[in-house]
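Recall from the previous chapter that SMILES is a line notation for molecules. Here it describes adenosine-5'-triphosphate.
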Amino acid sequence: MRIELQNFTKRFGDTTVIEDMSLSVASGEMIALLGPSGCGKSTTLFAISGIHRIDGGTLHFGDRDVTRLPPQDRPVGVVFQNYALYPHMSVADNIGFPLRVQNLKPAEIKRRVGEMAELVQIGNLLARKPQQLSGGQQQRVALARALVRKPDVLLLDEPLANLDAKLRLEMRSEIRRLQRETGITAILVTHDQIEAMSMCDRIALMKDGRIEQISTPGDMYERPASRYVAGFLGNPPISFLRAEAKGQLTIGADNALPLPHGTAARGPITLGVRPEHFGPQHRGPSIAGQVSFIEPQGREDLIDVTLPCDQRLRAIVPAGHDIALGQPVTWQVDLSRVHLFDAEGARL
Ligand SMILES: Nc1ncnc2c1ncn2[C@@H]1O[C@H](COP(=O)(O)OP(=O)(O)OP(=O)(O)O)[C@@H](O)[C@H]1O
Ligand SMILES: [Mg+2]
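With both inputs in hand, we obtain:
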């Protein structure tokens, strides 16, 4: 089911938190709403689910205008961060709750609950109460309950936030599997870039109530539309250097790079270099500085190089090197992979 949100505006009292936002999600697509705390991710999700009334704009599911439809009439399943399971009900009753509200026959409810429990692999836990389950199992119950009415749209608000690192990893692929198997159109709200990149077909990166860029994970990583996007994606993060473009790129008094091919930039700019594109193992023009920090990561080390102008570049260097703290180094930058941004932060 295609989702089409157009010119969406949301206010709380006098404060406008979302202004004129448009988003379309293709049928069967899973899209991430990614962004820092307070940027409006949950607000957008609540508007699509119908929990929040919208102050401007329209929402369509396929050809149907659902802008004014109450939440219970929307073909939507929602999973919240805290799962919101009913503590006094068994797993089976939790999953079957949306069907009992619809007054389905008990035999039919039982059949569909069993089917859902199999899908999320908790068929053996149906008699338990939520507090007798692990976090990951509770998460699966919440998913089964969201899917049991066979909705056209699945909305997930930080569904993995309460799980430990290992379970998060497991549930990441589990949710993606379910989404693919059911072919449901899904929106995942998260502030975790790894989650967004690994689980979704596309990412809508939000900032202050608007979408800054919407693209596939690969494209957003390779061609960030702004300094904000470049800084949000990537772990360890990209390094930014202040530079001056004037025939070449001057970085402080002691370092300069040729202008990357095709740029006619002039004046002050920001140069963005990802740590995997700078180091002793690369080819390209070089930058000189001094090793100011080494953080072993196992397979590789993160190494900070501080330039004479006191700006810092981070490098990922394969482990087994003999680089020491304080050592002067002249390392190469993969110039074809660097990013340039103007004074306002837009990509050049
Ligand atoms: N019921 C409300 N009344 C007033 N302001 C609200 C209400 N709900 C949200 N806001 C404000 O709207 C903005 C967006 O909130 P929202 O919950 O959508 O952020 P979010 O991106 O989901 O953040 P987080 O990652 O912290 O969950 C915030 O500034 C928040 O304070
Ligand atoms: Mg939120």
